[in-house]
Amino acid sequence: MFYQHTKTDLYKEREKTMSPLQHVHLKDENSPQKAFYDLWIQKISDGYLVCKASGANGKVLNKESWFRETKQEAEEKFQRILSNKLNPNRKSPRKYQMIPSSLTA
User: What is the pTM of this model?
Assistant: First the structure.
């Protein structure tokens, strides 16, 4: 039987085999829906992707990525997003905390 891969299958397989350069897992402990936000930098052939996956109750509801040509540009975007998410004075009702990677596995 012949199995045809979809773009989603190939994306998931690629995600599994490529290690991110940086990764953080954020969680809002006070969120009734247990909101989370994952942020990472991925090296690709022609640059870098700053990627995020967010959701609630352990289910990813939104994925986004931003292309940057250089590692420095990717790290700057990563830090801007991270600083915003960890800012206790942000306007959003979600107040994220960083979760150590050993607790996210």
Answer: 0.76
